[in-house]
């Protein structure tokens, strides 16, 4: 029910905020969210304020606009705010204008998420699309970050592929996030690691060694794996989602700005549309057999 009254606050704000962090990984688990927050705190403390401010702005906006209480509590209106808050904090030096900018972006991400959930249906799921759109706008207004040289270490690259979901390139961050995922959903966590590994391997085969060691080909593949790695799901479906995300990444790499999580979002949309078209085709065939 959509109302404009400031009613029905979340019963537990801390849980709602932590769920917002875990929902970046398509999981709902406060401990997982806490591990993600610790990953930021221990490896990039300068980004913690942006992440929390973005999450809080998204949650408050959802509450002010009367979005479903259960969805707010689940973190569904906070996770895009987490990501845009991290991105803005990473790109801009802290000044008087940065907190209001993060609050505005976090609030707008909540509104975009709500509209996407209303109009996108089961085919064009919101995922991190609001973050991508707001992130592209942010990147267009800021200077690109300089590329860093990273040592060749397959284990570190595997963990960076997970950490880069939160724009973190420290292996410790990836390890903490993996621990959180293992507690929340061990099956999904293993698929996320497999997606990161496949992404890194593809980058190496394509001659993108530095991108591989930085985990830049791992995070979209890991997210695609998380989106389709539900218990009982056929394994080839998850592998196809990973493959699509990796096939799309070079296309988004041609953009003048970073593609962020656009390859993951687009791959998921293609998977949903393809599944829908396949089901329609099967129904038509069944109807023909019975006619």
Description:
The chain is an all-alpha fold. The chain has a single domain, classed as Ammonium transporter AmtB like domains (Ammonium transporter fold), CATH 1.10.3430.10. The protein is about 70% helix and about 0% strand. It has 14 helices and no strands. α2 runs antiparallel to α9 (about 170-185), α3 (about 50-65) crosses α6 and α6 packs antiparallel against α7 (about 130-140). The radius of gyration is 19 Å and the shape is globular. The model is unreliable at about 1-10 (pLDDT under 50). GO terms for molecular function: urea transmembrane transporter activity. Its main location: membrane. It is found in: Cell membrane.
The percent range for strand residues is under 5%
Total domains: 1
Number of helical elements: 14
Kindly identify the CATH topology: Ammonium transporter fold
In N-to-C order, the SSE pattern is: HHHHHHHHHHHHHH
**Any idea what the CATH superfamily is called?**
Ammonium transporter AmtB like domains
Reported CATH architecture: Orthogonal Bundle
Question: What ranges have pLDDT less than 50 throughout 5 or more consecutive residues?
Answer: 1-10
Average of per-residue pLDDT values: 91
Structural class: mainly alpha
N-C termini distance: 43 Å
What proportion of the residues is helical, as a percent range?
A: 55-70%
Count every beta strand, where a strand is a DSSP E run of 2 or more residues.
Answer: 0
Give the biggest beta sheet.
none
Coarse morphology:
globular
CATH class category name? Mainly Alpha
GO cellular component, one term: plasma membrane
Keywords: Cell membrane, Membrane, Transmembrane, Transmembrane helix
GO molecular function: urea transmembrane transporter activity
Family: Belongs to the urea transporter family.
């Amino acid at each position: 029910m959509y109302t404009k009254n400031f009613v029905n606050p979340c019963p537990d704000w801390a849980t709602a905020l932590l769920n917002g962090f875990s929902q970046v990984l398509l999981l709902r688990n406060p401990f997982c969210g806490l591990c993600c927050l610790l990953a930021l705190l221990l490896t990039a403390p300068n980004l913690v304020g942006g992440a929390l401010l973005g999450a809080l702005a998204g949650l408050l906006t959802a509450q002010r606009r009367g979005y479903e209480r259960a969805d707010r509590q689940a973190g569904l209106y906070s996770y895009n705010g987490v990501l845009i808050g991290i991105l803005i904090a990473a790109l801009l030096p802290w000044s008087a204008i940065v907190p209001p900018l993060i609050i505005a972006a976090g609030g707008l991400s909540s509104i975009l998420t709500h509209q996407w959930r209303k109009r996108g249906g089961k085919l064009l799921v919101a995922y991190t699309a609001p973050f991508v759109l707001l992130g592209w706008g942010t990147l267009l207004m800021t200077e690109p970050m300089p590329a860093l040289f990273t040592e060749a270490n397959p284990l570190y690259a595997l963990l960076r592929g997970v950490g880069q979901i939160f724009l973190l390139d420290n292996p410790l961050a990836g390890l903490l996030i993996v621990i959180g995922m293992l507690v929340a959903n061990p099956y999904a966590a293993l698929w996320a690691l497999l997606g990161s590994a496949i992404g890194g391997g593809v980058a190496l085969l394509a001659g993108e060694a530095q991108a591989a060691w930085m985990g830049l080909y791992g995070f979209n593949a890991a997210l695609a794996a998380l989106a389709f790695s539900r218990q009982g799901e056929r394994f080839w479906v998850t592998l196809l989602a990973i493959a699509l995300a990796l096939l799309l990444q070079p296309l988004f790499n041609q953009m003048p700005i970073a593609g962020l999580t656009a390859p993951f979002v687009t791959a998921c949309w293609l998977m949903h549309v393809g599944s829908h078209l396949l089901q329609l085709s099967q129904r038509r065939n069944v109807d023909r057999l019975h006619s």
